[in-house]
Amino acid sequence: xxxxxxxxxxxxxxxxxxxxxxxxxxxxxxxxxxxxxxxxxxxxxxxxxxxxxxxxxxxxxxxxxxxxxxxxxxxxxxxxxxxxxxxxxxxxxxxxxxxxxxxxxxxxxxxxxxxxxxxxxxxxxxxxxxxxxxxxxxxxxxxxxxxxxxxxxxxxxxxxxxxxxxxxxxxxxxxxxxxxxxxxxxxxxxxxxxxxxxxxxxxxxxxxxxxxxxxxxxxxxxxxxxxxxxxxxxxxxxxxxxxxxxxxxxxxxxxxxxxxxxxxxxxxxxxxxxxxxxxxxxxxxxxxxxxxxxxxxxxxxxxxxxxxxxxxxxxxxxxxxxxxxxxxxxxxxxxxxxxxxxxxxxxxxxxxxxxxx
Length: 357
Description:
Helix content: 40-55%
CATH architecture of the domain at 61-161 and 247-299: 3-Layer(aba) Sandwich
Order of helices and strands: HEHHEHHEHEHEHEHEHHEHEHEEHHHH
Radius of gyration: 21 Å
Low-confidence stretches: none
Shape: globular
CATH class of the domain at 61-161 and 247-299: Alpha Beta
CATH superfamily of the domain at 61-161 and 247-299: HypD, alpha/beta domain 2
Mean pLDDT: 95
Number of helices: 17
Distance between the termini: 30 Å
């Protein structure tokens, strides 16, 4: 049986033989980690392939407005819970951590189950969970909402769906793309079918990929084959996990709990149908309804990006992380200027972690 190295070398040889010059985009922080950690980009560059990261970091695409909403809720007296890598993302007036330093009740949780339990333990205090993430984490939020949560529990929904963002990137036309490497985690939930319309409309090859180095390299080879044959289809490299129909139960829960809404992504204009708003039947747990008066001032604020930060351009694949003049200097994981340096799925954080190793 050939070793992984031998298989990788065989893949590279076949890509080279196809004679393609490809610019590909993935939309997954774990793919970026695999790409950088294992030094795949230099290897693929020899075969004429360059891969850029798109908006595949859910923390990174969360907007300054949403961060300020969470801060306003916390400073307004609510107990705010969120995942750890959301806490240090800087907003226009500070982060959730800085709100805690100002006396707000802000807590890290490892699951929405923890957040619901905290609300039950303090029934006299209103508790808000900041729901961040794509179709990977949204099902757990949906299940919590549909499982009779306590009356004092609310969701600040910052959830987003991936396919509309892919359409937006293609439509914007800032970056020439020869193919898309689709995220394995998201695709486990939504399946492969939501990508089909994108390939039909734009004639662009797509491959759903797993997270091991050979998964990513095989996905590149599959895209190169499609390109050389003039095809633009959806293929599934991660078939050991991903099915065309996805996770039917998770999709059903999301449909019952959320309805599509238009929402902005960091670095993007408003993307139609890319957000998840709570359905009217769950309005009693919607933080934006319950705390409308607290959040009203936030709706009137302007939200410029931090001076010198180009996270928006990084998330659109226009520039690489180390092209930012702040990278590794004014902006580090200890003192981040933008979210791409904060989140473990952010390309700046990943490059900083492995650079020179």
